[in-house]
């Protein structure tokens, strides 16, 4: 039986007087492909930050791999976060360095700082790096400066970084927001293909059709509250109208 990778119990998160999340109860099981939908300002990015343990709730509890993320030691928090791979909206790539260095950043927790620094001075593409780049279709770019790549190619670098990290949980915050519909579909298909079948994926999206095509479950957030949680096959038009327009 699949275990819960994530569990949120009555979670709220505020930033001063701004309430980003309110009373969120949520569990996600190993192997699920979950799309989090909602308008801008709904709390989607805050939710992902809580899921990877980089942000703590103002109230309620968050469990990551069965461990409550509150009051963890720095070492335990790092160990948990090593199992989580994240693609942020900005991709968190260093534009001025070669593609190989951005991809190898996924091995920082494995290598440690000394070896990671050495790899910058004496870059040696190995089989694992080349396999990751080949899997996302940009093996030709291993020595290219990242800033020379297109937006879609940089997305592929970020996915290759995930692939080399081998995380148990993948969190992607609007990974296709800047792409046209064709490129967005390509990136979503690639993300699903390169993440291991045993990995769990949670992705925030604005496009319901991408959720239907590439995920198994859809969660709707509006004004910090979960307004629906359903299999994508049961995602109704009226639910989406209510989610984005605030009315049925």
The share of residues in helices is 25-40%
Strand content: 25-35%
N-to-C terminal Cα separation, in Å?
A: 37 Å
User: What does the average pLDDT come to?
Assistant: 84
Which parts are unreliable, with pLDDT below 50 for 5 consecutive residues or more?
none
Most strands sheet: 6 strands, mixed
Shape: globular
- What is the succession of H and E elements? EEEHEEHEHHHHHEHEHEEH
Q: Widest sheet: strand order? A: 6-7-8-3-9-10
Q: From the helix content, strand content and strand pairing, which structural class follows?
A: alpha/beta
Short descriptors:
248 residues; 10 helices; 10 strands; globular
What can you see in these coordinates?
This protein has 248 residues and is of the alpha/beta class. It has a domain at 95-166. The chain has helices spanning 44-51, 74-81, 99-104, 108-111, 113-121, 127-135, 151-165, 181-194, 208-214, 237-245, and strands at residues 4-15, 18-29, 33-37, 59-64, 67-68, 84-87, 169-173, 200-205, 217-222, 225-231. The longest helix is centred in the middle third of the chain and has 15 residues, at 151-165. The protein is globular, with a radius of gyration of 18 Å. The N and C termini lie far apart (37 Å).
Element layout with pairings:
Elements: E1 4-15, E2 18-29, E3 33-37, H1 44-51, E4 59-64, E5 67-68, H2 74-81, E6 84-87, H3 99-104, H4 108-111, H5 113-121, H6 127-135, H7 151-165, E7 169-173, H8 181-194, E8 200-205, H9 208-214, E9 217-222, E10 225-231, H10 237-245
Helix pairs in contact: 6-7, 7-8
């Amino acid at each position: 039986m699949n275990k819960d990778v994530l569990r949120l119990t009555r979670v709220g998160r505020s930033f001063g007087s701004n309430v980003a999340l309110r009373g969120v109860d949520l569990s996600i099981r190993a192997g699920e492909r979950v799309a989090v939908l909602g308008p801008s300002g709904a709390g989607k990015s805050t939710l992902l930050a809580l899921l990877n343990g980089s942000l703590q709730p103002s109230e309620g509890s968050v469990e990551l791999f069965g461990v409550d993320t509150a009051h963890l030691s720095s070492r335990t928090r790092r160990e948990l976060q090593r199992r989580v791979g994240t693609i942020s909206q900005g991709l968190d790539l260093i534009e001025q360095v070669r593609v190989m260095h951005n991809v190898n950043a996924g091995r920082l927790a494995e290598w440690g700082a000394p070896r990671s620094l050495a790899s910058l001075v004496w870059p040696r593409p190995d089989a694992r790096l080349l396999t990751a780049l080949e899997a996302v279709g940009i093996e030709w770019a291993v020595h290219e400066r990242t800033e020379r790549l297109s937006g879609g190619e940089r997305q592929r670098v970020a996915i290759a970084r995930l692939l080399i990290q081998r995380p148990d949980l993948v969190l992607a915050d609007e990974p296709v927001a800047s792409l046209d519909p064709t490129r967005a579909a390509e990136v979503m298909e690639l993300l699903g293909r390169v993440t291991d079948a045993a990995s769990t994926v949670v992705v925030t999206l604005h496009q319901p059709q991408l959720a239907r095509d590439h995920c198994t479950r859809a969660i709707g957030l509006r004004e910090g509250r979960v307004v629906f949680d359903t299999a994508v096959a049961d995602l109704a038009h009226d639910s989406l109208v209510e989610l984005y327009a605030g009315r049925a």
